[in-house]
Amino acid sequence: MIDLKTLWEIQALDLERRSLEGSLQEGDLARKLRALKNGIEENRAEFNGLKEEYSGQKKELKKREMDIANLEEKIRFLGNKLYDGTITNVKEIANTDRKMENLREEVKRTEDLMLAIMEKLEELRRKMESLSSEMENKATQYRRLHGTYLGNQQNIRKMLARIPLARQKLLDVVDKETWKKYVEMKKKLIDPLARVEKGACMGCRVGIPFNDLRTLKLGECLVYCQNCGRMLFWEK
Ligand SMILES: [Zn+2]
Q1: Which domains are present in the chain?
Q2: How confident is the model at residue 2 (pLDDT cuts 50, 70, 90)?
Q3: Could you report the per-residue pLDDT of 155-203, keeping only the tens digit for each?
Q4: CA dist 41 to 79, 132, 141, Å?
Q5: Helices and strands, number each (H, E), in the chain
Q6: What is the CA(162)–ligand 1 centre distance, in A?
Q7: How far is the CA of 224 from the centre of ligand 1 (A)?
Q8: If you compute the radius of gyration of the chain from its CA atoms, what whole number of angstroms results?
Q9: Coil vs helix vs strand at 23
Q10: Distance from Cα 68 to the centre of ligand 1, integer Å
Q11: Distance from the CA of 6 to the center of ligand 1, in angstroms?
């Protein structure tokens, strides 16, 4: 009587190890973590750009403030000349009046410019604030996921560590002849042993001919799938 249950269990262990090793290499979590990290770095670069722009605008604002102070100083100077009697010539008075008027207009233009700069500063500040909270959210998410990730990795390593001993115990009792055939087939297939369910090979999902099924259920010799070539395992 051929019993393939042990072989089936060894194969299950090997497949499990393969899948565990796969999830150690690259998992959904690892991908998410990387995406978050990249996102944070992009945000930070954008934030630094905004910060630089902000300080540039701030300097510009200071400069305009000084411009206005200078203009007002000039206006005061001309005003004094006009009222302290230094200028008496009518033409010169008209000239000075016009100069002062021009200076006042320049003050007005500069003030408008300053308002625009202040609006810009406000907008930059809002953008920086929203970026900053976005980064904070991502960082929190990253820390949380990273904790889960490390825990998962640890669990996977624990599960992997249990496999060799369990596998050795099965190897000690597996039928040696069948094992040799199986190992030979394993060079081509990762799962050379296929379970039979509802009269079909679960390796390729193709139905097994009636005679093969009968032989399989009698359990007197090995039966192979005529379609995919896998060794067939029928569990009573
Ligand atoms: Zn098959």
Answers
A1: 27-158 (1.10.287.1700), 179-233 (no CATH)
A2: confident
A3: 999 999 999 999 999 999 999 999 999 999 999 999 999 999 999 999 9
A4: 57, 12, 14
A5: 5, 3
A6: 31
A7: 8
A8: 42
A9: helix
A10: 89
A11: 20
Round the average pLDDT of the chain to a whole number and report it: 95
What is the per-residue pLDDT across 44-88, written as a single tens digit (0 to 9) for each? Answer: 999 999 999 999 999 999 999 999 999 999 999 999 998 888 888
Residue with tokens 């099924």: 213
pTM over 0.70: no
Neighbours of ion ligand 1 (CB under 5 A): 201, 203-204, 225, 227-228, 230
226 Cα to the center of ligand 1, angstroms:
7
Sheet holding 200-201, edge to edge: 200-201, 193-197, 231-233
Ligand 1 centroid distance, CA of 48 (Å): 60
